[in-house]
Write a structure and sequence with these properties.
Length: about 325
């Protein structure tokens, strides 16, 4: 459509100029000559385009491309000027006289059209190729991010499994019946984790269900030494979060907090909305031994990386000593 429209507009301008500037030429001759100009313009530029593709010039650097395109444009302009002269000769039936000066002027005028055509064509092509490369880069980045997220999740699942198995092991000799019950719980928990573990995002209520099952298993190990306090905002239950992101914080609170205390302790789990963000908090009794977050193990380092990949700077993580006797982990996710 651009090809037809461009050459049609140019032919119309030439037709108008020829009609008003040279009254000695009859209208039929002007119409035929202009029509031939229109057909030749489309045909030659199409052939020129196929030539560019066949020669591989579309992928060439600009410094090498310009002289080649300029020489090609001069050759095509000369061919078109010669063909136009022959058409004019046959249509007007005037004896053919070849003039170098007239031919050179006609080539120069026609060359402007072909240079303009090539400028538009290559600009469009380079813009299109740039867009395709941009899309390809985004797809590649997304693919790499997805692979990394899956690797991070696969690192968390065995960690979570081993802790649960340790809880059940303590019951096998003492209370076999409770051990069987907890094996059933673990089976159900693993089934849930396999279902949601393949997802990028899951509703908050599903994540909390995993957390609750995990805590039920951990209560076997800690018994009275572990107290759980949940302060959950019902309005954020359908908010989507990365799977195991909250469970990892709870697991970390037990491993590095409550389990280190002889008398045990409390784990507070809070979800709430704050302006345009969702806040997840896990607080536990204990002390933050180091300001380095990665000292808390694979759970925290994975959490940081997963938030970075999933939210691209729209999620924050903070681990700090909240009171002299409690440590708090806070995730803030901006609503998109």
């Amino acid at each position: 459509m651009a090809q037809i429209g461009g050459w049609a507009l140019l032919s119309l301008l030439i037709f108008s100029a020829s009609t008003f500037s040279n009254q000695s030429i009859d209208l039929k001759t002007i119409v035929i000559s202009t029509s031939c100009f229109f057909v030749l313009g489309i045909a030659l530029t199409h052939l020129m385009r196929y030539f560019f593709i066949a020669m591989g010039w579309l992928n060439m650097r600009l410094s090498n491309l310009i002289p080649r395109v300029l020489i090609t444009s001069i050759v095509v302009a000369a061919i078109m000027s010669l063909l136009n002269m022959l058409v004019s000769h046959f249509v007007s039936k005037i004896p053919f006289k070849f003039s170098i000066v007239e031919f050179s002027l006609d080539v120069s005028a026609t060359l402007i059209f072909f240079i303009l055509w090539n400028s538009v064509y290559f600009t469009f092509h380079f813009f299109q190729r740039s867009r395709e490369q941009e899309v390809s880069n985004l797809q590649l980045t997304a693919s790499h991010n997805e692979i990394e997220l899956k690797n991070l999740r696969s690192q968390l699942n065995p960690h979570f499994l081993f802790n649960s198995l340790n809880s059940i092991r303590a019951l096998i000799d003492i209370e076999p019946y409770r051990a069987q019950e907890n094996i059933t719980k673990l089976s159900n928990l693993l089934r849930k984790s396999l279902i949601i573990g393949s997802e990028q995002l899951v509703p908050m209520e599903e994540e909390l269900s995993i957390v609750q099952d995990y805590l039920d298993l951990e209560k076997v190990r800690f018994e009275e030494r572990l107290e759980i306090v949940q302060e959950l905002d019902p309005e954020v239950m359908h908010f989507l979060i990365p799977p195991f992101i909250l469970q990892t914080l709870v697991e970390n609170a037990l491993k590095h907090g409550v389990s280190q205390l002889i008398e045990g302790g409390t784990v507070w789990i809070r979800t709430k909305r704050k302006t345009e963000s969702i806040i997840l908090e896990v607080e536990n009794n204990g002390n933050l031994r180091s300001s380095r977050k990665d000292s808390m193990g694979i759970g925290i380092s994975n959490t940081l990386r997963r938030l970075e990949l999933q939210y691209k700077g729209k999620a924050n993580f903070e681990l700090k000593q909240n009171t002299p006797k409690t440590v708090i982990a806070i995730i803030e996710i901006k609503e998109i």
